[in-house]
Write a structure and sequence with these properties.
The chain is an alpha+beta fold. The chain has one domain. Helix content is about 20%, strand content about 10%. It contains 1 helix and 2 strands; from the N terminus they run E-E-H. The protein has a two-stranded antiparallel sheet with strand order 1-2. A hairpin with a 5-residue loop joins strand 1 and strand 2.
Length: about 80
C-alpha cells in the first residue's frame, strides 16, 4: 500500500510498500516435468504445476525481519519503540 512517513523534523516522505507474507516455494528442487499436449491446446497458457511446500522453512516475512535487524545493527541504528 501507500503511505506517508513523517520524520521528527516534520518532513513528510511518501512511500509505497510491498506485501510480504507466506512461505517461500521450494521449486528449485523439483525436477522438470514433461507432459503430452494435444494439438488443440497449442498456444494455451501452460498448466500450473503444484508448488511443493516444505512447511518447516522460514517465511519470507521472517527472513525480511531478520535482514532488517542485521542491517540496523550494522549501522548502529537507534531502536525505535514499537507502535503496539
Amino acid at each position: 500500500g501507500r503511505g506517508r512517513l513523517t520524520g521528527p523534523d516534520g518532513r513528510v516522505t511518501p512511500f509505497q510498500g510491498g506485501r510480504v507474507t507466506g512461505r517461500i516455494p521450494r521449486t528449485a528442487t523439483q525436477r522438470p516435468t514433461v507432459v503430452p499436449l494435444e494439438w488443440q491446446r497449442m498456444g494455451d497458457p501452460p498448466a500450473r504445476r503444484p508448488v511443493r511446500e516444505l512447511g518447516n522453512g522460514p517465511t519470507d516475512l521472517a527472513l525480511l525481519a531478520s535482514a532488517l535487524e542485521r542491517a540496523a545493527r550494522e549501522v548502529s541504528a537507534t531502536e525505535v519503540p514499537s507502535l503496539l
